[in-house]
Structure formats: structure tokens, C-alpha cells
């Protein structure tokens, strides 16, 4: 029987993993999929990455540098829940991609290396989550190695993130003696992820716990657990949902500890798909009519087909195969004839998807980042951000005969969000902007491989870019007075280009009625 919308929504958990490189995100992802039954053998996430890399030339960059550029989505089921895990690039040069992906999740798992604590990239990604009130579940990984004291880790989270912590489990032993997790509130033990169910015990001094630890460590464990109970906050669902408190789990993704605890936590506490803000109203996930938005475009996932996939997050209703949707930006109807789900190994045709699900929609350039699809309603979802590029370059083309082709190629890359493209008002050649230098490498590689356009980059005389808006007359006067420093982005919105921060600040002082923005929401 077809699933009702209410039930489908209640079952879904859409989340991302945030972490500093090397903390164990890939390993944890593999294990989530393994225990979720989405893959047969751990190691296939990496194996799949390798396969795609050999299939696709432009991803050579990834392979050479050992970084993950591509965002993907993985779906698995565990117990009664359907989990959509949105993967994000690890390297900070692709931060804008990560931020856009975080607009499509309802919660996040923060993975921390138990020896290293909060690292810079964890902090940055956490701040993005906080801006969006995304609740965070913490997984302290690598408990099988030399670690810091768990209390110290909790203190560091509280101090560095200004976030309350509530340990839900406590590690039984650590390093070489790490042997399981103890559920503080339930008084239950799991000796590792091979045990599907936790086993109730009488307390930390029970035989089951004693059997797991060397005799000389037992008194310390009992004492530590007492302290954890007395000194730490209890878990508070509301505080978690509001983003003030994080439940903390300990484990080892590599050795299969704590992963089931984590999945259960996501099922039990993480929010179901939340209401999404559109320009004219809030859209509730259980509404009958389908609404969705594009947060990511991926070209040439399969170079044999030269296809372009738009990743769409469903916000309400039911997206079904073959339905006619309205693309609000153009007002035109669009037939969703082959929406796809992604699993670790394969993509399959999606017959129906509900709020919280992410489907891929193959298209030939019709869909752009930030686009809203509806069943006819005239609304636009807000909040998929565009960040002012920090590096601006002109593209130098070896063969001037190919200028038109370059223009088209750049336009396509900009629509995918690989680069931003700015056309100067004075008619001079376009300027590309990126947030991180590696994005320029990707651009160069793809222009060469996919379009046969070998290019170089040369410095533009600008290094700062801001979207300008404000009082119509004043904006017009500003644009007239600065023609040589004004360009239009892909949507035709004006930007002001300055040689340096100082130049920007100087103008901002003089033109108080003009707004200079470093972030633009896609329309
Ligand atoms: P990512 O960069 O965050 O995706 O991290 P990976 O999952 O690739 O892990 C980085 C390294 O840490 C790899 O060598 C993993 O095998 C190792 N690793 C991951 N989890 C654990 C763990 O729980 N214990 C130990 N000892 N090593 C781990």
C-alpha cells in the first residue's frame, strides 16, 4: 500500500556529517551504510569513489590530491527509519558546496577525533550549522587509540563551541582496552556493533561490564561513570532540537563500536524533515502538494552520457515519477520523467519521494542551483547561499576562435556552481570567481577535458566582489559613476568589483544608501 505523506515524513532523517579531514567521516559513512544494509561490505564507499575516479577524467584532481570534490547522497534504512546522508567535500576550497548542502539537511553528526578534539574545520562547519539552527549529534571517534580523557573532550566542546553537552553513552575502557559503550540513562551495555541490541545491566559494577575490563581498570570505570552521572547534563530533547545541546556518543568507526548507538540516536532524537522557509510562507513537510528546491548540480557523473543531475531536496508532498512540475524561475512546466535515488552502489529510478528525500533529476541545463519546483504554486525557497568569491581571474584562451565556446562552457560551469561568472558592464572579457583555489584547478581540468579548451588564468585588477542593492535611484547613480567596476552575475544582478578591501570600504562609506553584500541567496 502506498505510504501516506504523514507517515513517510515521520520516518525520514536527513543529515550530513561534519568533521575535520581524517577524523573518520569516510569510515563512519561506510559503517552507517553497512549496518543500514545499504552495502554488503564495508570498504565499498572508497571502492566506489575509486571506480568513479577512473571512469571520469576530470576527477583526476580528486585522486591526485586525495580529496573528495563531489557531493553525493546515500540512502539507507534502519529500524523504522529512512536515512538520507548527504556527503560533503572535505576540502575547504569547496566550502561553498558544503554550505549549500547544509541547507538541505535537518540535522548533522559532528565527528571528532578523540585524540585531537575540536579542529579548525569542525569549528567552521559547526558555525554554519549554528546559523541555521541545525541540531548536532556528536560522535567521538577513534576511542580504540590513545585518547584524551572523555571529560576533557566534553569540556572542550562546551568551551570552543559554546554548546552544552550531554554524554548519552560512556566508553568502557579506551585505547587497547576499549571494549564497548555504556548507556548512562538506560544502564545498558553494547559490546560493539555486532550486538544488535543493548543489554540491560544492574549498574557499572555488574558482571557484564566487569568481564569487559582488565581488573585494575574496573574501579576507575565505576568512579568515572558516577562522576559522569553527577557532573554532566542529562540529555534534553528540546535543547538539542533548538541547537543548544549536543548528545555525545563514543565509539570507533573502524573497529565497529558506537555506530549503532549513533544510528539509534538519529532515529530517536534527530528531527524529521522540518518546515522550510519560502519567500511568501513556511512550507510544512506534510503538506499534500509537492515542493522542492535544487541545492546542487553535478555534471557528467557518467561521462558516457554527458548528463547533468540536479540534486533536489523535497520539502513537502510527494514527488512521483512522471509528474509535471512547475519551475518557478521560468514559469514553465517540467516533466519529472526519470527522478533517481542514490544508493552507495547504484542509482535507481525513484517512483516516489517525500519531504527530506533527495532525488537526482537528469536535465540538460534547465535547472539551476536555488531553483524551486512546485505543483503550480508561485513560491521560492530561500537560503541557498552564493558566497562572494575570494579569488577573481580572467580566463586566457589560447585560441581566440573559440571565444564563443568558452563563453558557453563558462556559463554552464557557473550554472553548476563550479565557478561564478561576472560580465563587466564595460564589455571587457568575463571574470571568473571562486571561493578556493582548487576550484580553479577543477575549472581548468574540466574545460580542457570536456570542452577541449586549454586555458590559463590571469589576475584581474580586482580582488573583492560584492553584490550591490538598495535605493533604486541611488543604486543607479552608483552604477553610472563606477561603470568600469560593475559587472553582472549569472542572474543579471549587479556586483561591485574593488581592487582591495580598502577600496570597498571607502565606497561603502560614501554611498550609505547602497548595500554591499558578501552573500547572496539564490532566487
Ligand atoms: P575522513 O578524512 O574524515 O573521511 O577520515 P577517514 O575515514 O578516511 O579516516 C582517516 C584515517 O583514520 C584512516 O586511516 C582510517 O582508517 C582511520 N580511522 C577512522 N576511524 C578510526 C577509528 O575508529 N579508529 C582508528 N584507530 N582509526 C580510524
From TrEMBL:
The gene it comes from is prfC
Which residues are involved in binding GTP?
Answer: 19-26, 87-91, 141-144
**Which NCBIfam families does this entry report, sorted A to Z?**
prfC, PRK00741.1, small_GTP
User: Where's the Tr-type G domain?
Assistant: 10-274
According to the UniProt entry, its GO molecular function terms are:
GTP binding; GTPase activity; guanosine tetraphosphate binding; translation release factor activity, codon nonspecific; translation release factor activity, codon specific
The name this protein carries in UniProt is: Peptide chain release factor 3
Q: Family, per the entry?
A: Belongs to the TRAFAC class translation factor GTPase superfamily. Classic translation factor GTPase family. PrfC subfamily.
Q: Name one GO biological process term.
A: regulation of translational termination
The record's section on SUPFAM superfamilies has: EF-G C-terminal domain-like, P-loop containing nucleoside triphosphate hydrolases, Translation proteins
Where in the cell? Cytoplasm
Q: Does the keyword Phosphoprotein apply?
A: no
Q: What is its main location?
A: cytoplasm
Q: Which UniProt keywords apply?
A: Cytoplasm, GTP-binding, Nucleotide-binding, Protein biosynthesis
Q: Name one GO cellular component term.
A: cytosol
Q: Which InterPro entries match?
A: EF-G-like_DII, EFG_III/V, G_TR_CS, P-loop_NTPase, PrfC, RF3_C, RF3_dom_3_sf, RF3_GTP-bd
Organism, per UniProt? Nitratireductor mangrovi
Job description of the protein: Increases the formation of ribosomal termination complexes and stimulates activities of RF-1 and RF-2. It binds guanine nucleotides and has strong preference for UGA stop codons. It may interact directly with the ribosome. The stimulation of RF-1 and RF-2 is significantly reduced by GTP and GDP, but not by GMP.
Q: Does the keyword Protein biosynthesis apply?
A: yes
Q: Which PROSITE patterns match?
A: G_TR_1 (PS00301), G_TR_2 (PS51722)
- UniProt xrefs under Pfam families: EF-G_D2 (PF22042), GTP_EFTU (PF00009), RF3_C (PF16658)
Amino acid at each position: 500500500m502506498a505510504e501516506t505523506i504523514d507517515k513517510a515524513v515521520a520516518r525520514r532523517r536527513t543529515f550530513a556529517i561534519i568533521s575535520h579531514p581524517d577524523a573518520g567521516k569516510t569510515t563512519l559513512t561506510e559503517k552507517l551504510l553497512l549496518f543500514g544494509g545499504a552495502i554488503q561490505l564495508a570498504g565499498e564507499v572508497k571502492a566506489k569513489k575509486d571506480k568513479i575516479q577512473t571512469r571520469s577524467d576530470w576527477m583526476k584532481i580528486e585522486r591526485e590530491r586525495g580529496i573528495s570534490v563531489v557531493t553525493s547522497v546515500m540512502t539507507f534504512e534502519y529500524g523504522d527509519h529512512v536515512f538520507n546522508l548527504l556527503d560533503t567535500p572535505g576540502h575547504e576550497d569547496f566550502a561553498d558546496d558544503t554550505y549549500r548542502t547544509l541547507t538541505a539537511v535537518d540535522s548533522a553528526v559532528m565527528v571528532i577525533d578523540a585524540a585531537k578534539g575540536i579542529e579548525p574545520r569542525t569549528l567552521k562547519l559547526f558555525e554554519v550549522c549554528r546559523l541555521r539552527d541545525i541540531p548536532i549529534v556528536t560522535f567521538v571517534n577513534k576511542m580504540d587509540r590513545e585518547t584524551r580523557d572523555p571529560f576533557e573532550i566534553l569540556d572542550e566542546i562546551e568551551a570552543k563551541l559554546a554548546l552544552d553537552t550531554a554524554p548519552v553513552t560512556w566508553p568502557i575502557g579506551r585505547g587497547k582496552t576499549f571494549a564497548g559503550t555504556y548507556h548512562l540513562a538506560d544502564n545498558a551495555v553494547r559490546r560493539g556493533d555486532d550486538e544488535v541490541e543493548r543489554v540491560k545491566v544492574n549498574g557499572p559494577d555488574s558482571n557484564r561490564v566487569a568481564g569487559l575490563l582488565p581488573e585494575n581498570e574496573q574501579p576507575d570505570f565505576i568512579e568515572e561513570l558516577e562522576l559522569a552521572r553527577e557532573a554532566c547534563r542529562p540529555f534534553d530533547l528540546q535543547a538539542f532540537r533548538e541547537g543548544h545541546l549536543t548528545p555525545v556518543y563514543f565509539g570507533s568507526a573502524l573497529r565497529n563500536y558506537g555506530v549503532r548507538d549513533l544510528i539509534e540516536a538519529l532515529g530517536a532524537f534527530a528531527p524529521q524533515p522540518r518546515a522550510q522557509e519560502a519567500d511568501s510562507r513556511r512550507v510544512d513537510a506534510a503538506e499534500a502538494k509537492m515542493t522542492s528546491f535544487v541545492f546542487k548540480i553535478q555534471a557528467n557523473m557518467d561521462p558516457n552520457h554527458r548528463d547533468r543531475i540536479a540534486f533536489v531536496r523535497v520539502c513537502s508532498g510527494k514527488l512521483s515519477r512522471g509528474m509535471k512540475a512547475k519551475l518557478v524561475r521560468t514559469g514553465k512546466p517540467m516533466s519529472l520523467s526519470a527522478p533517481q535515488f542514490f544508493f552507495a552502489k547504484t542509482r535507481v529510478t525513484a517512483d516516489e519521494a517525500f519531504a527530506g528525500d533527495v532525488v537526482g533529476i537528469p536535465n540538460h541545463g534547465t535547472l539551476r542551483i536555488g531553483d524551486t519546483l512546485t505543483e503550480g504554486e508561485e513560491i521560492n525557497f530561500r537560503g541557498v547561499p552564493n558566497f562572494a568569491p575570494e579569488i577573481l581571474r580572467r580566463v586566457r584562451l589560447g585560441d581566440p576562435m573559440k571565444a564563443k565556446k568558452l563563453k558557453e562552457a563558462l556559463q554552464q560551469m557557473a550554472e553548476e556552481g563550479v565557478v561564478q561568472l561576472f560580465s563587466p558592464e564595460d564589455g571587457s572579457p568575463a571574470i571568473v570567481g571562486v571561493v578556493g583555489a582548487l576550484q580553479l584547478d577543477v575549472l581548468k581540468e574540466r574545460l580542457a577535458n570536456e570542452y577541449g579548451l586549454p586555458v590559463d588564468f590571469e589576475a584581474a585588477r580586482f580582488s573583492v566582489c560584492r553584490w550591490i542593492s538598495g535605493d533604486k535611484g541611488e543604486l543607479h547613480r552608483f552604477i553610472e559613476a563606477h561603470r568600469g567596476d560593475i559587472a553582472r552575475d549569472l542572474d543579471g544582478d549587479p556586483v561591485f568589483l574593488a581592487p582591495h578591501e580598502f577600496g570597498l570600504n571607502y565606497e561603502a562609506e560614501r554611498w550609505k544608501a547602497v548595500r554591499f553584500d558578501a552573500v547572496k541567496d539564490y532566487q
